[in-house]
Every structure is written in C-alpha cells, then in structure tokens.
Amino acid sequence: MSLKFILLGLLDQPRSGYDIKQIFEGTLKNFWNAELSQIYPLLSKLEREGYLESDLVDSSHGPRRRIYHRLAQAETELFDWLASEPDMPVARIGYLAQMFFMEKVSPKQRCGFLHRLRERFEQQHRFLSGLTAQYPLEDFEQNTPSQDDPQASSERYLARVLTMHHGVLRLKALIDWCDLCLCWFDRLPKNS
Amino acid sequence: MSLKFILLGLLDQPRSGYDIKQIFEGTLKNFWNAELSQIYPLLSKLEREGYLESDLVDSSHGPRRRIYHRLAQAETELFDWLASEPDMPVARIGYLAQMFFMEKVSPKQRCGFLHRLRERFEQQHRFLSGLTAQYPLEDFEQNTPSQDDPQASSERYLARVLTMHHGVLRLKALIDWCDLCLCWFDRLPKNS
DNA sequence: TGTTCCATGTAATAAGTTACATGATTTA
DNA sequence: TAAATCATGTAACTTATTACATGGAACA
Q1: Residues B137 and B164 placed together within one structural domain of the fold
Q2: What are the residues facing B55 on neighbouring strands?
Q3: Which of B45, B57, B73, B76 has its CA nearest to residue B19?
C-alpha cells in the first residue's frame, strides 16, 4: 500500500512513470524500490480511481510520454497517510536468518560471510556519508540568512536530508555489529 | 526463497507447522515472520519436492499433528545457502517513505510522528536488551569451564545470541536518529 | 456454556519480480 | 551499423496477507 502513497507524493509536479523510476534509482532506493512493471499499472489504476489524470506529450528526443498529475483526492489521502501511524511492517532480514543458523558451518565460512556482509555495509555507508556531507544540517538553522523566502529553499528539504542520516546511523551500527560478531567468533576454538 | 531455508533450518529436529509458527512468534519475529497459511502449504510442497518427510502423530491434548523431519537433500541445500552471499534484498522502510514527504505537514504533526516512532523503537529496544542480558557474551569465552562437552552448550548458540545484539545496536541507532530529527525540527520556525 | 488454545488446512487477494514485446532516437 | 537510452506496456510467476472453514480439548 505504501507504493501508492509514494507515487502520489512524487507527483507534487507532473511526471511520467519513467521519470518516477529515475527517482527511485537515484535517491529513493535507500528505503524503497519499484520496477517499471509495477509502476505503470499502478499509475493507470490510480487514474481509474480518480487520484490522477494524464496527458500524452510528445518528446523532442524519443517516444511520446504519458505525464501524470495529481488531483485533490490524492493530496487528501497523502496527508492522511503522513499524519497516520508510522508504517513498520514485520522486518524480513534475510542475512540475519542466515546468521541464526550460522553455527552449522565452519568458523572459516562464518567469518567469510561476515566479512562480505561488512564490506557491503561499508560501501553503502561510504556512499551515504558522502551524500549527506553535501547537505550540512547547519544550513537549516533557523537564524540563517535567506529567511526572506519562507516557502522555498532550506526548510522544504530538511526531512529529506534527515532520511539520509537514517541510513548513515543505521549502517554505522550494522558495521559495529559485524565487528562484534567477528570479535566473538574469533574467541572460539578453530576446530569445530 | 528465504522462508524455504528457514523452515529447513528449523527442522533440525522433527516439528509440526504449528510448532514452527510458535518459534516465529517467540524468537524469530525480530527478523522474519510467516503466517500458518504460508507455512502449511510450503511444508507440503517441500515434502513433495523431496526435502522433507512427515508422519501423523496423535496428540495427548488435541488433534493429531503432522510432524516433519528433514532429509539429506535439505541439509545440503541449507549449507549451500549459509555459505552463499548474504541475502540483502532492497530495503522497504515505510516510515522512511513517510519521512521523505514529511515536509508537507505541520511541525506539530511531524514531531508527533517522530515521537510515536521513537516510542516503538524504544519498546523493541527495551525488550531485546532484556533478552540479551540473559545470555552474556562472556559465557562464550573459550577459556571458560565446561570445555568437557564440546558439542553442547555455549558454542552452539553464539550465532543466535549475536542476532539479538543486531537488534539492540540497530534500534539504539534508530532511537538516536529520532532524537536527531526532533532536535532539528525544533530549530525550525513554528509557523509553517 | 462460552472462550481460549490446539491443530490443519483452503481461497482470494495484494504486492513484487522476471521475462517478454515493441519501437523511436541518440551516440559511438 | 551496433549499442545504449528513452519510453510504455503485458504476462507469468512468486511471495505474503487476510479471510474463511473445521473441529477437538481444556478451562472458567
């Protein structure tokens, strides 16, 4: 159900399904993803249900594009979703399921697994750290210049910058956890 | 696909679908969940495919139970899964999707949302902290007594204790993130 | 006698992935 | 001329959720 609201949220300005997929690939992929084969049918369903309208627009450099824009009903339900309870479904963490049974394999395999896991976390952490460095929180300070345009600039994007910080803090904790695991696995006799 | 291996992993001793659901509710729910309506059909599919066998056993206090046990093929594929790459599908974090659009609502609603989120993390963190306290890592030290029984006790469960620590560290980071968000939202003018 | 727990299943629906099909335009 | 990118879709399949159906045993 969340994907519906993500699409409605991204249509704060008119966009095509292809445009939306670019946004998933570029910035949203840290906390959500959707394939074009899921986006296109859902957009047309939302149009049938009265959330959206679309126009076919010729493109200067490719085939015609179907550009969607959102209607009043979309904004109402979007705001309801934002004001409702935090969406926290059951976590499904595949690598932790593997970890749960990891006692079954050799110490060498256990450590190999954790090193590979750590390296992946490390990569994502480096990427997100670099990204957040480009948007310092200090720029959102209230006694900063450019208070003349209350609607534009800084305030509009604070929430989005904070979503990046979520990844940074989370990944740091997961890297620490890998180190904790490697540390304790090493204290076990190597003959099991 | 992970659920298949979780079921195979849990069948290190003979169990029924109902037994397995109890384990999900009790300890696995921190990183996975499955309903009985998913477990029963998958168990019978895995039996058809030659991973499992089952027997109908009368119960002293209720209807007869179908008890599954795993076969050689199950163990082979289970070990392959454990030695393979860490299973890290695209994260789908609904509350972060909400956060991404949170600029659209009032500061009061934003903070309400984050306080509710923080409270949920706090609850889970308290629960898992209490649980890990019952299984101190020090008990797994290699120069500890009871090295006389190498197969039993401590070593067998270290990986499982470490999966709990994953939750503790992760939730601590998420609580810190909520505090960071609340701190920076408070610095914004209250009139938007 | 009603509620909870034990126990196993099916059916319908929703959400997500992979594969397939089509065709224009741009770039190497 | 071949490959990559732009652009929109359908079909088949897998995974997960919710609702439904059944019936015995324990307990209050």
Answers
A1: yes
A2: B67
A3: B57
Q: What is the pLDDT of residues A39-83, one digit of tens each?
A: 999 999 999 999 999 999 988 777 899 999 999 999 999 999 999
Banded model confidence at residue A156, pLDDT cuts 50, 70, 90: low
* Residue A159 located in a structural domain: yes
Written as six digits, the tokens of B185 are 């939202």
Q: Model-level pTM? A: 0.92
Our measurement of CA B38 to C1' C13, in angstroms, reads: 14
> In this structure, are A44 and A7 located in the same domain?
yes
Instruction: Tell me the nearest-neighbour CA distance from B66 into chain A, angstroms.
Output: 24
Query: Three-class SS string for chain B?
Result: CHHHHHHHHHCCCCEEHHHHHHHHHHCHHHCCCCCHHHHHHHHHHHHHCCCEEEEEEEECCEEEEEEEEECHHHHHHHHHHHHCCCCCCCCCCHHHHHHHCHHHCCHHHHHHHHHHHHHHHHHHHHHHHHHHHCCCHHHHCCCCCCCCCCCCHHHHHHHHHHHHHHHHHHHHHHHHHHHHHHHHHHCCCCCC
Q: What percent of chain B has pLDDT over 90?
A: 82
Question: What is the per-residue pLDDT for A75?
Answer: 97
Which amino acid appears at position A120 of this protein?
R
Q: Is the CB of B89 under 7 A from strand D?
A: no
Domain total of chain A? 2
Contact A173 B172 (CB under 8 A): yes
Q: Which domain holds residue A50?
A: 2-83
